[in-house]
Automatic annotation (TrEMBL):
The TEX10-like TPR repeats domain, residue ranges: 504-626
Species annotation: Trapa incisa
GO cellular component terms, semicolon-separated: nucleus
InterPro entries in the record: ARM-like, ARM-type_fold, TPR_TEX10
Region named Disordered: 1-40
UniProt protein name: TEX10-like TPR repeats domain-containing protein
Biased composition (Basic residues): 1-12
Length: 866
């Protein structure tokens, strides 16, 4: 046997025969190792490739891009990315692109709305919030007219889909999107109204809320409020005849089987189902509010929205019902409508739910509450009380429920708003504004006698205490009008001393309020004047009011003119009010049994003011001229004062024809009105002595030429041939007419350089004849008057400045064929006048210029020839 060495040797020989698997290489220390045989060479050799352009860059040249350089197509693709951050950034990029390039996205609005609508039901909250801000602040305001209708209808499909999402967050957000659409697309909302109401009905009826969700549900309710407001607005437009063209679905009334529209019937039917659900949710929220104080503010807001929805839903339904009843001609038709099964079902469902609300819903305003919640408490109580006031008669509310609300209404009427809290004052006024329309009906029919007195006194204190120019004052005036006079009968029995005392306080306050309103609130003034006019018309029927209405004259005077200090007149608000208010004030005057002198004087001062529109002046003159409550002597004095002091328009601008008409139109029309009124009186032989002295007295005060001509025309209209003027009046008129005729010549100069047929000369001759015509009539009726005038003109011919005017008067009268025959009877007077002029010419020869002497000599020659 061999040893171990022999064995190793033998093995070595066998390996040499087979070959060595891994040859061991000995390496020296410090030497670099060679690379392995299977190493890959990573060195790359390349040459530059020059391309003339790149297709991606070409596509973006000239295209609108966001801040990150993305086009609208890129951004819309990224809105569907699996990463929520990418989707949110894409929406932000869309917003930036729209703001930077508003025209580019507008061309692709269909694709844009489609892609954005797909994110409505996004599971990520940040994406939904970003989309909401994008639609609210950018897309809808900028493209409201472009995307309304079919585009927003496409968005509604995604909103309805999101309302059925398993996540409560997504569902609540869907209702916020719905609110946006409702506020921006009224037509689409009306078309989809039934489906919208059904969505809210499903959402509220499912009751998936925990305590936290009940507070957050307020975010879903504004959309329902706006939808119901829109339905109510279109309903009112339809009742007023303003049809909006919404698929004819507002044409029909839900109670008329033949003209009913299916859409409208479904809407009303959904409201019937919705009201009980809303009331149930409201009562649940009340319980949650009392048990969970930490989220009380959110619950209060949610309850306010629900109450508004209940109020609007019932109002829409009741209005339809009432309008259908009004269209009936007799009681049997109304009873037939009330007995219809669908009407009975609707009434029982809604009325039982409302009565449950009024019974179980408490009033909180009497409690001590935190300041931050006080506003919401006041609004909550006000909404509940408004529902009670609106539907008390329709619901036949029991007395115990009525008595539950009366203390709150009394407290609100007597509450002081001047506590320094502006927010509280605003809410107080807003609540009272909503209550005032229902106060008359409540006081007259639904309360006991004791409560009637208490509420009337509280209402009176509120009326007297509010600011004259506030909306509350206007609302109280409307309520007072109904409580004073309702049709032909008193709404409240004035035979009751306590009621009459309150009504007298209202009546006495009216003229003071009229002055306090001034001219800055014409709508309030118009309503107040209508009330005073209506009260004056009904006062004879109610003797209790007649005396009080007559006592308004003294305080009513300040409405026209307050006082006259040192020749300056202090006018009231009458002059600056619109014409409809001014005409209403005249109607109020005609209701007095007698217009006294002081009130008529105030009216006259306003009529003479240049600020008064001429049409209003003419209306006043016509009405007062035939009014039976003004003494004829006072009326004649009013006419004489107007004609004596009314300023004729004397604008110098424009052509001569425009100047002529503008000067005479106002006063000429006023004169015609006076003459027509005097003719309507009849008995000119009685009127002339009454007017003769006043007119002559005004003429002697030398009024303006236009005013003098108007007064002369009035005398001519009353006088006859031969004249019936007294001798004293004839003498006074003769003295006046001599100066008047000279003034006419001065006012209507005829340039000798112009030909007799030139336009300017014809206009001057026409105007001169306008002024002289009343004189011609008087001269024809009284030869004594002509003689006095000629003699008086002779006494005036004392200097050369008047000579030409006197000669021009005689020549003008001689050229008139009618007056030529009259002057032939006064040859001695004319000869004496010419002799005085000739003597004056000889004595003043050295003082006159050559041209003046030639003109006087020419006139004298013409007269001698005539």
């Amino acid at each position: 046997m061999g040893g171990p060495k022999a064995t190793k040797k033998k093995q070595h020989q066998q390996q040499q025969k087979r070959g060595i698997d891994f040859k061991k290489i000995r390496r020296k220390i410090g030497k670099k190792l060679p690379p392995p045989n299977n190493v890959t060479n990573t060195r790359i050799k390349s040459k530059a490739i020059i391309l003339p352009e790149q297709s991606v860059a070409t596509e973006k040249v000239g295209s609108a891009t966001s801040k990150k350089g993305l086009t609208l197509e890129d951004l819309l693709k990224q809105t569907s990315h699996h990463n929520s951050k990418v989707r949110r950034d894409a929406l932000i990029g869309v917003r930036d692109l729209i703001l930077k390039h508003p025209d580019e996205p507008r061309r692709h609005k269909l694709a844009l709305i489609e892609k954005l609508s797909q994110r409505i039901g996004d599971e990520d909250q940040s994406v939904r919030e970003t989309l909401y801000q994008l639609l609210q602040s950018v897309v809808l305001p900028a493209w409201k007219e472009d995307i309304r209708g079919s585009l927003l209808t496409r968005m509604m499909a995604y909103i309805f889909n999101a309302m059925t999402h398993f996540s409560m967050e997504v569902r609540l957000m869907a209702f916020k999107y719905l609110d946006l659409v409702v506020q921006n697309d009224s037509l689409g909302t009306l078309i989809s109204a039934e489906k919208i109401l059904q969505s809210y009905l499903d959402f509220l009826a499912s009751n998936p809320f925990n305590v936290q969700d009940k507070g957050r549900v307020k975010g879903a309710l504004p959309g329902l409020v706006h939808c119901l407001l829109l339905l109510k607005s279109h309903q009112e437009d339809h009742l007023r005849g303003k049809f909006t063209g919404v698929r004819d679905f507002l044409h029909g009334y839900w109670l008329n089987d033949h003209s009913v529209s299916v859409d409208l019937y479904l809407v009303i039917n959904k409201l019937k189902d919705l009201v009980p659900v809303l009331i149930t949710r409201l009562l649940e929220l009340l319980q949650s509010f009392h048990s969970t104080e930490s989220i009380g503010i959110q619950l209060l807001d949610a309850m306010l929205y629900i109450l508004q929805c209940i109020n609007l839903a019932v109002k829409i339904s009741v209005t339809k019902f009432q309008e259908e009843l009004k269209s009936c001609h007799n009681k049997s038709q109304r009873d037939e409508i009330r007995s219809q099964p669908k009407v009975v079902e609707w009434y029982e469902t809604v009325s039982s739910a409302l009565v449950k609300l009024l019974v179980e819903c408490p009033l909180h305003s009497e409690n001590q509450i935190l300041v931050k919640k006080e506003r919401r408490y006041a609004q909550l109580d006000a909404e509940i009380t408004q529902i009670f006031l609106k539907f008390q008669e329709w619901l036949h509310v029991p007395e115990d429920i009525t008595n539950k609300f009366l203390p709150y209404i009394e407290m609100l009427l007597e509450e002081e708003k001047s506590d320094g809290n502006l927010v509280h004052a605003e809410i107080w006024e807003k609540n009272l504004l909503s209550f005032f329309p229902y106060i008359p009906n409540l006081i007259s029919q639904h309360v006991s006698v004791g409560w009637r007195y208490r509420l009337l006194q509280a209402f009176t204190r509120a009326f007297m205490g509010c600011h004259p120019k506030s909306k509350l004052k206007l609302a109280s005036i409307s309520a007072i009008k109904e409580m004073l006079i309702h049709g032909s009968e008193a709404f409240l029995d004035p035979s009751d001393p306590e009621v009459l005392d309150i009504q007298i306080r209202w009546i006495r306050e009216l003229p003071h309020l009229l002055v306090a309103l001034g001219d800055k609130n014409p709508s309030s003034t118009e309503i107040l004047l209508k009330l005073i006019n209506h009260l004056g018309g009904c006062a004879p029927i109610h003797p209790s009011f007649l005396l009080e209405y007559e006592d308004l004259k003294t305080s009513f005077q300040a409405f026209f003119c307050t006082s006259e200090i040192e020749g300056s007149i202090c006018y009231g608000p009458f002059l600056r009010l619109p014409q409809n208010c001014q005409r209403l004030s005249l109607a109020c005057l005609t209701k007095f049994s007698c217009i006294d002198v002081s009130l008529l004087r105030a009216v006259t001062r306003c009529c003479l003011c240049n600020e008064l529109d001429p049409d209003v002046l003419f209306h006043f003159m016509e009405v007062l001229g035939c009014a039976k409550n003004i003494q004829i002597a006072n009326c004649l004095g009013f006419f004489v004062t107007i004609l004596s002091h009314l300023k004729a328009v004397t604008e110098k601008a424009g052509a001569e024809q425009a100047q002529l008409s503008s000067r005479l139109t106002t006063l000429h029309k006023a004169t015609d009105i006076v003459c027509r009124s005097l003719y309507a009186y009849g008995d000119a032989h009685v009127l002339l002595p009454m007017l003769e002295g006043a007119i002559v007295s005004q003429l002697l005060q030398k009024p303006e030429l236009e005013n003098a001509r108007s007064l002369l025309k009035v005398i001519c209209s009353l006088d006859s041939e031969p004249t019936r003027l007294t001798e004293g009046s004839i003498i006074a008129l003769g003295e006046f007419l001599s100066a008047y005729l000279l003034d006419v010549i001065y006012e209507t100069p005829i340039n000798a350089s112009k030909t007799a047929k030139s336009e300017g000369a014809l206009l001057s001759m026409e105007l001169r004849l306008y002024y002289l015509r009343p004189c011609y009539l008087l001269f024809n009726r009284s030869s004594k008057l002509v003689s006095i005038v000629l003699k008086s003109m002779g006494s005036l011919a004392d200097d050369s400045s008047r000579v030409n005017a006197i000669l021009e008067v005689i020549l003008t009268m001689q050229r008139n064929a009618y007056m030529h025959q009259v002057l032939l009877q006064f040859h001695p007077e004319i000869h004496s006048l010419l002799q005085k002029i000739s003597d004056l010419e000889n004595s003043e020869k050295n003082k006159m210029t050559l041209e003046e002497r030639l003109m006087v000599q020419l006139a004298l020659d013409q007269l001698r020839n005539l």
